[in-house]
């Protein structure tokens, strides 16, 4: 019996790097130092996704978590297109979700911290204001429009709490919401 892809040669373009496990775990590395998960990600979008995927996969494996890689990175790992989407998808068993989340949080992983920030934003009154939070390499980009300078400051306060030590670029603007100065006449 053959499984899908067993009888074909992967059509990976020349010059495309392979997906390999990240650096050796700290306990096996000279000096026992752990490599920070988000240090030194490549500027190239696809390479940054691959490197982050390798690091997270190595962390999950080192901590004994079972997982499966899915999405465009999994397709790439099996010889498919090198056109990666915006993220890497890891599947974990529902009963392991909290332990995996604790591992990712303990490693200081920015995307996990951003997810927690998004939960806080959605739970509070600024949640309906349309603030977008994106991880871009090792930095976080905030965009959107809010109703007041106070709302913007509340949001930025949450960001400072949740993402301490992470470079954050804010493009949150305040919309002018004043009453019209005169009656509008329609002709």
UniProtKB/TrEMBL annotation:
<dbReference type="InterPro" id="IPR007055">
    <property type="entry name" value="BON_dom"/>
</dbReference>
<dbReference type="Pfam" id="PF04972">
    <property type="entry name" value="BON"/>
</dbReference>
<feature type="region of interest" description="Disordered">
    <location>
        <begin position="1"/>
        <end position="42"/>
    </location>
</feature>
<feature type="domain" description="BON">
    <location>
        <begin position="118"/>
        <end position="175"/>
    </location>
</feature>
<protein>
    <submittedName>
        <fullName>BON domain-containing protein</fullName>
    </submittedName>
</protein>
<dbReference type="InterPro" id="IPR043519">
    <property type="entry name" value="NT_sf"/>
</dbReference>
């Amino acid at each position: 019996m053959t499984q899908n892809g067993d009888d074909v040669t992967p059509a990976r373009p020349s010059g495309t790097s392979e997906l390999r496990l990240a650096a050796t775990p700290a306990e096996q590395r000279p000096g026992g130092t752990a490599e920070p998960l988000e240090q030194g990600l490549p500027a190239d979008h696809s390479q940054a996704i691959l490197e982050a995927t390798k690091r997270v996969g190595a962390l999950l494996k080192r901590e004994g978590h079972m997982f499966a890689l899915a999405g465009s990175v999994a397709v790439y790992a099996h010889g498919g297109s090198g056109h990666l989407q915006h993220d890497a998808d890891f599947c974990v068993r529902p009963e392991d979700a909290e332990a995996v989340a604790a591992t990712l949080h303990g490693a200081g992983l920015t995307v996990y911290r951003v997810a927690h920030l998004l939960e806080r934003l959605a739970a509070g009154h600024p949640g309906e204001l349309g603030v977008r939070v994106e991880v871009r390499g090792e930095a976080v980009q905030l965009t959107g429009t809010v109703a007041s300078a106070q709302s913007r400051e509340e949001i930025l306060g949450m960001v400072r709490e949740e993402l301490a030590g992470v470079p954050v670029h804010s493009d949150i603007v305040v919309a002018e919401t004043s009453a019209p100065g005169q009656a509008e006449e329609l002709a």
